[in-house]
Sequence to fold (423 residues):
Amino acid sequence: MIRKDKPNIVIFLSDDLGYNDLSCYSSAIHHTPNIDRLAGEGVRFTDFHSNGCMCSPTRAALLTGSYQQRCGFELMLDKAIERNGPGFTGMSSETVNFGRTFSENGYATSFLGKFHTGEIPEHSPLKIGFQEFRGIGGGMDHHSRYDRHGHLTWWVGEERAEESGYATDLITDHGLRFIEEHQDEPFLLYLADWCVHFPWQGPDDPADFAPGVDNSAVPDKWGSQYPDEHKRAYAEMVEAQDRNVGRIAAKLKELELDSNTILIFASDNGGNRMVTDNQPLRAGKSSIFEGGHRVPAFCRWPGTIQSGKVSDETVMTMDVFPTILSLTGVEAPRHHTFDGIDISNHLLSGTSLPERPLFWRYGPKAAVRSGKWKYVYEDEKEFLFDLLSDIGEENNLISTRPEIAEGLKKEMEQWAEDVAYPK
Fold:
């Protein structure tokens, strides 16, 4: 059955995938034919940014359509719990997010994969409005389902469970099942893959984490393929994820849902420099420089979004929620602050996006961008870059254009006051 009333939504979030890790972004190492083809059938972004340089902040921003600071997630989950004090163990069940919003508007909703914005079961995706959850709270072995502390960390609903299979395959298997089960009604599938995060293990590598064994120390947490085989394993992980993105697309086509499904793909932060090269971008995961948050992304909706487009507009993870509301015609929740913007007109007709300042902060690291200018404070040093001529952030203009830097710093101060948590 082909429905034309409400489009389906599939959001595929990669974990630690770097800007140049796909062949459609010039990788000469990884072979990613499925993602390349799908990106070519929609709008591929060259200036898409994760809200955070680490995973929990970006995931909170994606779910809420707002700066992650508003709900307490400037930092990773464990550090956010420590900073926010007693009573904070994750995203509140009252937090507006796309899971509850689409569930309340006639959509079947599923969260598959990595949550990491709350302690499970107290703060599972089910508590914030998703109808189904299978996945992990934080990290795990890609084969054994145990984390680096030796704990079983795979959840089915709000119960720990044993399920076999290579992680990205298992998560995708459940995605295919969900699509099959809900093919005759509108659905939202949020597939938060565990690839390509460490431990770096290819599909045929052995499990590294086992029950009751603590592998949390460096280098054990990177997995047994580190350091001699970690890049080989990482390449296999990228290509395994590509295969699974292709499986999702093939199922949509098989069920004649292709033209009625919006597919969004992105990464939660920049690539880990131990396994990938983010050139020409500076730095990588955990940094506020471009390599930490400029990520690969595309949006595809066959027959509605024109294919073969490459967008140089600046987009953020938090723009996804308001955009899918607009594309589906679902009413925006009342009394919710959206910091993200609706980019649907840009996707549909190429309309330019309005200029706006954009902000990143992870503890003592901070950055603000306005147009071509980007101010960065990292490693107790100040930087100013003209990204239009210096995407690699090599030429620090802080001493020659101090007035630009001061203006951006003032905007950051105002932003910090606005998004402060708690109010």
User: Anything to note?
Assistant: The longest strand covers residues 8-14.
